Each structure stands twice: as C-alpha cells, then as structure tokens.
C-alpha cells in the first residue's frame, strides 16, 4: 500500500519523506539516514523481533523469513519456544548463516503463552521490540515504517499499523480485511499521535499489539505485565503501555498479515481465553483511570463468564457451568447467561446457549 496524504507521511521543506526515503545528512560513515518529517534518523538502533511458538511448526518458517526480510538492517530475531514443545530447533537451524542475527530460546517446562513471551521480551537485546506470533507475517517495510516516530519523539511508547487477513495458505482475504479494519475502528482513526490512548487501546481495541505494533522497552515497565493475561497478553500489554501516559502513533497502512486457520489459539483455546479475559476485565474495572468506561468492561466481564460457562456446559461440567453463568448474571444479566443457567438445572431445557 503506497504512501499518501493520509498515511502519516508527506512532504516537508521540499523533501519527499517516507519510510524508505533517504537524503544526505549527519551520521557515522557507512550509515544512511532515513528522513521522517524533516528529521534524519540514523540506522543504528537495534530492533528485536520476538516470535513465540508452541507445538505449531507449520507456519514458523514463513514468520522467520518475514522477519529476516525487513528493510531495516539492524534487527535481531528471537524465537521463543515454550517448554514441552520441540518443533522450532530444526527450522531455526535452517536459517542460520554466519551473519544472521537469529537465536532460539526454550523454556525448561510449559509456562504458557504470556510467560513465554515475557521471558523472550526480557531476553531481547534491542531497545525496540516487535511481537510476532508464529503464524503471522510482517511486510518487509514494517520496521522501517513504524520505528521513525519512536526515534524522533520520546513522548511515544509505541507505534502501530493496520493489517491484512490471510488464510492458511497466506492468501489475502479482502472482504475479511476490510471488515477487520471496520470492527477495530482503524478505518476512521486519525493518523499520527494519540495521547492518551486508553480509549483507542482498551475500549476500541484498535492496536494490534500481537503482530502490528512496535514498542520501546525503556518507556514502559515490564514488571507491570501479568502472566495471568495468558492468550490475551496483547490487550494487557496495550494496557501496560497506555498507563504510562505516553502516546501511540498510528500509521494507517497494512504492514502485517494476520493468519486465520483451524489451529489458531482463538479457536482451540477458548477456556484459556475466557479465563484471561475475566482476569483482564476485573483489572480494568478496578482501575480508577478507566472509570469512564467501566460499563464497557463490566459487559465484557459478564460475557467472559458466560463464555466460560458455555465451555463447561459443553464438557458436561454442569456445576462449573452454572457457577460461571451465575457470575455472569450477577455481573450484568444477559439472555445468554440466563438461558445457560437454565440449561444447567434442566438438561431438557433450551437446546442452545446463544
């Protein structure tokens, strides 16, 4: 997707600006500055691209290749494999060359998605970090486009972009891509800096932290992260970044690809996701800084309880299902929770919990 007047780049002082524009300027010998809004950005900052994987090797090679193909030269790739899995070593080894900044770290035991990612973020050597799941892809100019705003403005904690939706074979699904942009309200989101970004990040959930953001590790505190966020780690990391009070910079270009396939966590890990969302929304409800949107998080907490109730009901754990439906009703009554609760006590009741 080419640059235009809406994508955060333009012309200033007679220079053509953009993530790939170069012009004479200061810098050490052998370094070519990139110009961003009239400021030279010297290519010397190391960016760490962290790719996490657990028992899912099918798409890992493509994810690594997309990281290695970045036009920003100073990058390292850290592949983080959770314990209990041994699918990454051979794939990583196939990419190793004398000058390849690629390494594998493995957990000694299964620690879960959030803890595995946290360990990898701490292991990363770059000040700037990109998170990438093993089934997603970066466009070659991703780092080149998202890094300059953070280098030129220390009041920003992260930058982010829009993304494509692709199928299991990597083919772009155009209708799904447009719908995704609409659902997460990036279509009408103003390019540039947003300060604060509590609404954009936590209410509208417009920031695709899992594979569409680049962040500065020294401008937030990783000690604020909680592994209870589990597979919803991306939303909680957005919270960690937003509560710093710093800004987020939006570049409305599709620079990553989110892959939809049968083995994705959102389809296979529903109980883990519901438990994570219960934890996160309880945290949001308790935060005075988010009081303006408390009703939003209460509704989402009720939805998460009901979703966990459905999972338990399908597994024929009626007691656990009933307790979660009851918590959902207590939090915020909905038809789904009420019907589910009835089904727990009357096996021949309504056939479907909506």
Kindly describe this structure.
The protein has helices at residues 60-68, 89-95, 113-123, 142-152, 174-183, 198-203, 233-242, 265-268, 270-286, 294-314, 318-331, 335-345; strands at residues 11-12, 15-16, 33-36, 39-42, 47-53, 75-81, 102-106, 128-133, 137-138, 156-166, 192-194, 213-216, 247-259. It has 354 residues and is an alpha/beta fold.
SS field, number of helical segments = 12
Major pleated sheet? 9 strands, mixed
Number of DSSP-assigned strands: 13
Q: Kindly, what is the distance between the CA atoms of the first and last residues, rounded to a whole number of angstroms?
A: 39 Å
Strand content of the residues, in percent? Answer: 15-25%
Report Rg: 22 Å
Give the uncertain stretches in residue-range form. Answer: 1-32
- Let me know the average pLDDT: 87
**Considering DSSP H and I runs of 4 or more, what fraction of the residues is helical?**
25-40%
User: Given the C-alpha coordinates, what overall shape results?
Assistant: globular
Structural class, by secondary structure, is alpha/beta
What is the N-to-C order of secondary-structure elements (H for helix, E for strand)? EEEEEHEHEHEEHEHEHEHEHHHHH
- Assembly type of the shown chains? single chain
């Amino acid at each position: 997707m080419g640059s235009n007047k809406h994508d955060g780049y333009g012309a200033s002082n007679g220079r053509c600006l953009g993530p790939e524009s170069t012009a004479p300027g200061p810098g050490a010998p052998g370094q070519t500055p990139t110009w961003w809004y009239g400021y030279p950005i010297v290519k010397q900052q190391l960016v760490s691209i962290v790719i996490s994987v657990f028992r899912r090797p099918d798409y890992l090679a493509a994810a690594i290749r997309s990281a290695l193909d970045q036009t920003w030269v100073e990058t390292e790739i850290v592949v983080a494999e959770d314990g209990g899995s041994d699918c990454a070593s051979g794939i990583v080894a196939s990419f190793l060359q004398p000058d390849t900044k690629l390494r594998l770290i493995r957990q000694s035991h299964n620690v879960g998605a959030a803890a595995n990612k946290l360990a990898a973020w701490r292991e990363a050597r770059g000040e700037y970090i990109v998170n990438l799941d093993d089934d997603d892809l970066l466009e070659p100019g991703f780092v080149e486009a998202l890094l300059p705003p953070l280098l030129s403005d220390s009041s920003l904690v992260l930058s982010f972009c829009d993304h494509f939706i692709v199928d299991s074979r990597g083919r772009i699904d155009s209708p799904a891509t447009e719908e995704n942009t609409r659902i997460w309200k990036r279509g009408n989101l103003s390019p540039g800096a947003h300060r604060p970004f509590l609404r954009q990040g936590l209410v509208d959930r417009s920031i695709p932290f899992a594979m569409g953001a680049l962040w500065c590790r020294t401008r937030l505190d990783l000690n604020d992260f909680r592994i209870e966020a589990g597979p919803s780690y991306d939303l909680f990391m957005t919270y960690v970044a937003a509560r710093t009070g710093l800004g987020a910079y939006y570049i409305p270009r599709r620079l990553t690809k989110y892959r939809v396939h049968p083995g994705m966590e959102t389809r296979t890990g529903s109980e883990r996701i519901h438990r994570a969302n219960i934890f996160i929304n309880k945290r949001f409800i308790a935060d005075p800084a988010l009081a303006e949107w408390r009703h939003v998080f209460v509704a989402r907490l009720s939805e998460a309880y009901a979703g966990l109730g459905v999972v338990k009901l399908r597994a024929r754990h009626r007691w656990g299902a009933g307790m979660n439906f009851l918590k959902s009703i207590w939090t915020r009554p909905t038809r789904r929770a009420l019907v589910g609760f009835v089904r727990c006590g009357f096996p021949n009741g309504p056939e479907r919990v909506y």
